[in-house]
C-alpha cells in the first residue's frame, strides 16, 4: 500500500545516477536520469542512457528503491560500448528500449517507422526534455477528443518525455499516467513534425514493454460471430506471437487485449500483465521472444496498410494502451480493469446507475411488426415490470428485410402507422421508456441516399465493390457524410421522447478507398473512419446526454474500451443462448466489467443453437450483465410470463452488488464444460452473491463442495436461502454444498455478513 504521507503527485520521480560528457557536436551535457512511476502496488522505471536513447528498466511489483539503474547491467556484456568495446549494432539489437524505432540496428519489432521525402525509413529518437504533473491529460487529434481513461489531479500523475529525431525534426512525446489507487499505468504517444518537410508515418504503436524473461503464457480473447472472446492461452516461444485485426473494427475474431502471465498463474495466484488498447479499429499486439530469451511486447494501431502524412507543424496522437499488473492472478488483473473502466472510462448519466430493464423486439418479431404489435408487447411487458421497449431493425425507409434502406433514416409509415411520436407516446403512457435501433455507418444499394450519393460509400474507383449483408460502408472520413447522417438521426431523436439507442454495425471494411481523400492520404482511411465514428458518437452523447447509448456491432464485434467511452454498455454477443453465454461472458469479464455487458433472457428453443434452457437459468445468466428480455412476451408460456416479475425483483435486489462489487470467477467452462460458477462480493465484504450453473447432470455423482472467494475469513455469513451461518474461512477453504439435478439448471445463494 502507498504510505499515507506520499501524495499522488509524488508518485513519479526522477533519479540522477552519474554525469556523462557528450560529444563536442552535442548541445548539452546531462545526467543519466531514471524515471520511476509508482501505481498502487506497481513500479515502472525508465532510464535516459548516455546516448539520449530511452531504455526500459523495470515493470512489475512495487520496488521502494529509488535507484534501479543497476537493472540495466550497463557494465555487463553486451550492452556497454565503453566497457566491452562492442560494436554499436550489437548494443542496439540487445538494449531493452522504451520506444524502439526502425533503422538504427535494432532488428526487433519497432514501435515507430517513418518515410521521409527521400524515401528513407530510418528514425532515431533521442531525449530532449520531460515534465511531471498531477492528473491526466486528454488525448486529442486535430482538435477532436479521443477516447481514453480519465482522472483528477488527486487520482493520478503523468510523465511526458519529449524526444526528437534531429535529422527529420520528428518529435515524439511519450505519455505515461500512473493511477494512485489502482495498479494501472496508461501509455500513449504524440508525434509532431517540427521539420520543414512532410513525413509519412508508416507505423506508430502506443506501447512497448521489455521483459527480462520469456517464461510467460500469452492470453488472448478470440473467436467469431456468436462465439466472441474465447480465451486462448499458449506459452511464449522463440519468434513472434501476435493478435490483430485488419477488418476496420476491433472485430468478433480478435479483441484488442492481451496478457502475459506466469506459467503457474490462475484466477487467484501468479503474476499477470494485461494490455488493452482503447481503440475501435485495426489493432496489433505482439510478443517477440528474442535471441537472448527476452520478450518485447508491443501494442497499437495495426501498421498493415497504414500510412499517415504528417505535414510540417502537424501532430498525430496514438490511442491509449491500458496496462494492468497483478500479483493476484488473472482474477486480480480483471478486477483492476473492472474498477478502472467503471470509474475512469465510462461516462454520462448511467455511469453509476442501474440501467433500465428493457425488452427488445428483434427475436420476437424480426422485421414483421407494426405499431399495433409493438404496443401489444409493451402492454404486456409493462404489467410485468419491464421498463423500456426497444424497437429494433425495420422501422425506417421501406425496410422489410436486411437488403434495403440503410441510410434512409426516416420513418416507414406503412409499419409505424400513425408516426413515431404516436408510438412513443403510447408506450410512455404505459409507464415505459422507448428505445430505437440505428445502423448509421451503413448504406444499402437500393436506398435513396445511395442513389443520390454513390460516392459516399467506401470504394476504389474502377474496382467492384464487395457487398456483405447486401450493404456497403459509408465513408466516415468525409465530414459531409457524417453531418448528413447525424442530421437524419437528430430529426428522429427530436421528433419523439427517445431514451435509448442501439447503435449497430454489421459488416467490415474492404476495398478501402475514399472519393473524398486525396491520393497521398488514402491509406489514412482506416484510421480516419474510426475517428469519424468517434465524432458522431461524441455529438450524439453531447447533444443527448440523457439517452442511454448501447453499442452493437453484429453483436460483440466492437466490445472494446473506446466504445465504452461513449456507451456504458455494449451488446455482448448475438448469441443469446444462456449456456453458450457462459463462455462468452466469462471471456469478456477477463478485461471488461459485467455492468457493460448487454445481456438478455431470450426465447426458447434458442434462435442461435436451438437449445431449450429453463427460464430461471436464462435469468440467472442474463443477470451477469445489464439484464433485459428479447422475446415475444405475448406468446411465451404462462409459467415463464409469471416468472418475470420475480426475476425483475431479484435483479433490482442484486444489481447494486453485481454492478459495483468485485467479480470472482469460480468455474471455468473452458476447462470443465459440465458446470460453471461465479460470485460478486461487496467492496466492504458485507454481502456476496454466488451463482452455480449445472450444464450437464451426471449419474451416480455426489453433490459438490464449491469453494467461494473474496469473503472476509474472520466474518460470519448467513445463507439467505437456508438461514445457515458459516464463517468466511469455512466457505472459502471448505466450500458450500451444491446439490442440483438436471441439465442446464442453476441456483443462487445470497450471503450477508452477520
Describe this structure in words.
With 754 residues, the chain is of the alpha+beta class. The chain has 14 helices and 41 strands. Helices cover 20% and strands 31% of the residues. Residues 1-7 and 17-30 have low confidence and may be disordered. The protein is globular, with a radius of gyration of 27 Å. The protein folds into three domains: 8-344, Distorted Sandwich (Beta-galactosidase, Chain A, domain 5), CATH 2.70.98; 358-660, TIM Barrel, CATH 3.20.20; 675-753, Sandwich (Immunoglobulin-like). The strands form eight sheets. Strands 6, 9, 10, 11, 13, 14, 16, 17, 21 and 22 form a ten-stranded antiparallel β-sheet that branches. Strands 31-30-29-28-25-24-23-33-32 form a nine-stranded parallel β-sheet. Strands 5, 12, 15, 18, 19 and 20 form a six-stranded antiparallel β-sheet that branches. Strand 30, helix 11 (578-589) and strand 31 (597-598) form a beta-alpha-beta unit.
- Name the beta content range: 25-35%
User: Structural class given helices, strands, pairing?
Assistant: alpha+beta
Radius of gyration over all CA atoms, rounded:
27 Å
The CATH homologous superfamily of the largest domain: alpha-galactosidase from lactobacil brevis
- Stretches with pLDDT under 50, minimum 5 residues: 1-7, 17-30
Total strands: the figure is 41
Report, as a whole number of angstroms, the end-to-end distance: 28 Å
The number of helical runs is 14
Mean pLDDT: 93
Tell me what the CATH architecture of the largest domain is.
Distorted Sandwich
**Helicity range of the residues?**
10-25%
* CATH structural fold name of the largest domain: Beta-galactosidase, Chain A, domain 5
Whole-number tally of structural domains:
3
Instruction: Tell me the name of the CATH class of the largest domain.
Output: Mainly Beta
Shape: globular
Major beta-sheet overview: 10 strands, antiparallel
Amino acid at each position: 500500500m502507498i504510505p499515507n504521507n506520499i501524495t499522488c503527485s509524488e508518485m513519479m520521480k526522477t533519479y540522477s545516477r552519474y554525469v556523462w560528457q557528450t560529444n563536442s557536436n552535442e548541445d548539452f551535457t546531462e545526467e543519466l536520469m531514471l524515471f520511476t512511476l509508482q501505481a498502487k502496488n506497481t513500479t515502472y522505471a525508465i532510464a535516459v542512457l548516455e546516448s539520449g536513447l530511452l531504455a526500459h528498466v523495470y515493470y512489475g511489483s512495487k520496488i521502494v528503491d529509488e535507484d534501479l539503474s543497476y537493472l540495466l547491467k550497463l557494465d555487463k556484456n553486451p550492452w556497454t560500448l565503453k566497457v566491452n568495446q562492442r560494436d554499436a549494432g550489437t548494443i542496439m539489437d540487445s538494449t531493452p528500449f522504451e520506444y524502439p524505432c526502425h533503422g538504427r540496428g535494432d532488428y526487433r519489432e519497432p514501435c515507430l517507422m517513418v518515410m521521409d521525402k527521400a524515401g528513407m525509413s530510418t528514425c532515431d529518437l533521442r531525449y530532449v526534455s520531460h515534465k511531471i504533473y498531477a492528473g491526466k491529460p486528454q488525448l486529442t487529434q486535430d482538435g477532436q477528443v479521443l477516447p481514453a481513461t480519465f482522472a483528477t489531479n488527486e487520482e493520478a500523475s503523468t510523465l511526458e518525455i519529449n524526444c526528437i529525431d534531429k535529422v527529420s525534426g520528428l518529435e515524439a512525446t511519450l505519455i505515461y499516467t500512473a493511477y494512485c489507487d489502482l495498479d494501472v499505468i496508461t501509455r500513449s504517444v504524440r508525434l509532431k513534425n517540427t521539420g520543414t518537410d512532410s513525413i509519412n508515418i508508416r507505423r506508430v504503436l502506443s506501447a512497448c514493454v521489455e521483459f527480462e524473461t520469456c517464461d510467460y503464457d500469452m492470453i488472448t480473447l478470440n473467436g467469431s460471430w456468436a462465439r466472441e472472446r474465447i480465451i486462448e492461452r499458449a506459452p511464449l516461444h522463440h519468434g513472434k506471437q501476435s493478435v490483430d485485426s485488419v477488418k476496420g473494427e476491433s472485430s468478433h475474431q480478435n479483441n484488442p487485449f492481451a496478457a502475459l502471465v506466469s506459467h503457474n498463474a490462475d484466477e487467484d495466484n501468479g503474476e499477470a500483465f494485461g494490455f488493452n488498447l482503447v481503440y475501435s479499429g485495426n489493432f496489433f499486439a505482439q510478443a517477440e521472444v528474442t535471441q537472448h530469451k527476452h520478450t518485447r511486447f508491443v501494442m497499437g494501431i495495426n501498421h498493415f496498410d497504414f500510412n499517415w502524412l504528417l505535414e510540417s507543424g502537424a501532430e498525430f496522437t496514438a490511442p491509449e494502451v491500458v496496462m494492468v499488473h497483478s500479483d493476484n492472478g488473472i482474477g486480480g488483473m480483471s478486477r483492476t480493469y473492472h474498477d478502472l473502466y467503471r470509474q475512469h472510462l465510462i461516462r454520462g448519466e448511467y455511469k453509476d446507475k442501474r440501467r433500465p430493464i428493457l425488452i427488445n423486439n428483434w427475436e420476437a418479431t424480426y422485421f414483421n411488426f407494426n405499431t399495433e404489435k409493438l404496443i401489444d408487447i409493451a402492454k404486456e411487458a409493462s404489467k410485468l415490470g419491464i421498463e423500456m421497449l426497444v424497437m429494433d431493425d425495420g422501422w425506417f425507409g421501406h425496410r422489410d428485410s436486411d437488403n434495403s434502406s440503410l441510410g434512409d433514416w426516416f420513418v416507414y409509415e406503412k409499419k409505424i402507422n400513425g408516426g413515431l411520436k404516436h408510438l412513443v407516446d403510447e408506450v410512455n403512457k404505459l409507464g415505459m421508456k422507448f428505445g430505437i435501433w440505428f445502423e448509421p455507418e451503413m448504406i444499402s444499394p437500393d436506398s435513396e441516399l445511395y442513389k443520390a450519393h454513390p460516392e459516399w460509400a467506401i470504394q476504389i474507383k474502377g474496382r467492384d465493390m464487395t457487398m456483405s449483408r447486401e450493404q456497403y460502408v459509408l465513408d466516415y472520413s468525409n465530414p459531409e457524410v457524417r453531418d448528413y447522417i447525424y442530421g437524419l438521426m437528430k430529426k428522429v431523436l427530436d421528433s419523439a421522447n427517445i431514451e435509448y439507442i442501439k447503435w449497430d454495425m454489421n459488416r467490415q471494411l474492404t476495398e478501402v478507398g475514399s472519393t473524398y481523400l486525396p491520393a497521398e492520404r488514402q491509406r489514412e482511411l482506416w484510421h480516419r473512419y474510426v475517428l469519424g465514428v468517434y465524432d458522431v458518437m461524441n455529438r450524439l452523447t453531447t447533444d443527448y446526454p440523457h439517452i442511454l447509448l448501447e453499442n452493437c456491432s453484429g453483436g460483440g464485434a466492437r466490445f472494446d474500451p473506446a466504445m465504452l467511452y461513449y456507451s456504458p454498455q455494449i451488446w455482448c454477443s448475438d448469441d443469446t443462448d444462456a449456456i453458450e453465454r457462459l463462455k462468452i461472458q466469462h471471456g469478456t469479464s477477463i478485461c471488461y466489467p459485467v455492468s457493460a455487458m448487454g445481456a438478455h433472457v431470450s426465447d426458447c428453443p434458442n434462435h442461435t443453437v436451438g437449445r431449450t434452457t429453463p427460464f430461471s437459468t436464462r435469468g440467472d445468466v442474463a443477470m451477469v450483465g445489464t439484464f433485459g428480455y428479447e422475446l415475444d412476451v405475448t406468446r411465451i408460456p404462462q409459467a415463464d410470463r409469471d416468472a418475470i416479475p420475480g426475476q425483475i425483483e431479484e435483479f433490482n435486489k442484486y444489481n447494486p452488488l453485481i454492478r459495483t462489487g468485485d467479480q470472482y470467477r469460480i468455474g471455468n467452462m473452458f476447462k470443465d464444460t459440465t458446470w460453471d460458477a461465479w460470485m460478486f462480493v461487496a467492496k466492504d465484504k458485507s454481502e456476496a452473491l454466488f451463482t452455480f450453473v449445472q450444464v450437464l447432470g451426471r449419474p451416480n455423482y455426489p453433490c459438490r463442495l464449491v469453494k467461494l472467494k473474496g469473503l472476509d475469513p474472520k466474518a460470519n455469513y448467513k445463507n439467505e436461502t437456508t438461514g445457515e451461518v458459516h464463517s468466511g474461512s469455512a466457505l472459502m477453504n471448505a466450500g458450500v454444498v451444491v446439490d442440483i439435478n438436471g441439465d442446464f439448471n442453476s441456483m443462487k445463494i445470497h450471503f450477508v455478513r452477520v
